[in-house]
Amino acid sequence: MKITEAERDSFYKVLFSRRDVRREFLPTPISDDVLNRILLAAHHAPSVGFMQPWDFIVVSSEETKKSIKQGFQEANQQSAEMFESDRKEKYQTLKLEGIEEAPIGICLTCDRSRTGDVVLGRTIKPEMDLYSAVCAAQNLWLAARSENIGVGWVSILHDKVLRKSLNIPNNLEIIGYFCLGYVETFQETPDLERHGWQSRREVNNFIHFEKWQK
Ligand SMILES: Cc1cc2c(cc1C)N(C[C@H](O)[C@H](O)[C@H](O)COP(=O)(O)O)c1[nH]c(=O)[nH]c(=O)c1N2
């Protein structure tokens, strides 16, 4: 199956207009059909040895979101302390989650023993299963964007908060917690760039030919 030029352009449009969303969420519900398409897209990510090591825990309960939000607030305070003066002040002005505003949260986990101990492709580099689960995260993010749904990855959370709130067994690795919701608009530039925290760097600085160069 060949991709037409128009389809290619649509794909890049989705990819380049994807944003990490924390503040623009609308309360509009996400239908089961839409959610299922997004989760199916995530499930079609590549995975080492075709392990498919992921689970997706879909959260819509306000009470659960509240307990996760509380965990975020604690972790965020702790995180702010790690930055020096000016940076710390700036950090405290950033909005770094949309846990309660987003109609749906999804926690992505990785079952490192899903297909046994010895896995094709993971024999030498054991972290490959975690990377596979992250591929599912990216698929989810892009599929959501193609549905005009914003996604925000919240990693300022201790695992124990998610384990307790979502009943996640200790043998599962927690990859991430994602906030999903329709948005009024997708910003053109990342939040961190618009708020002067970090800008996009020039891609040519990171491309090397033949050998790595300083
Ligand atoms: C693994 C991981 C973890 C996080 C993020 C991303 C990724 C990949 N990002 C989002 C991040 O800040 C964002 O992707 C960059 O700023 C670039 O912006 P766009 O995603 O292009 O909008 C993120 N953002 C945020 O507000 N709170 C968070 O806890 C996190 N955590």
TrEMBL record:
Pfam families: Nitroreductase (PF00881)
Subunit structure: Homooctamer.
EC top class named in words: oxidoreductase
Single annotated GO MF: nucleotide binding
Recorded superkingdom: Bacteria
Keywords assigned: Flavoprotein, FMN, NAD, NADP, Nucleotide-binding, Oxidoreductase
Catalytic reaction annotation: FMNH2 + O2 = dialurate + 5,6-dimethylbenzimidazole + D-erythrose 4-phosphate + H(+)
Protein name: 5,6-dimethylbenzimidazole synthase
GO biological process: cobalamin biosynthetic process
Family under the similarity heading: Belongs to the BluB family.
InterPro entries per the UniProt record, alphabetical: BluB (IPR012825), Nitroreductase (IPR029479), Nitroreductase-like (IPR000415), Nitroreductase/BluB (IPR050627)
CDD domains noted in UniProt: BluB
EC number, as in UniProt: 1.13.11.79
Record domain Nitroreductase: where: 17-182
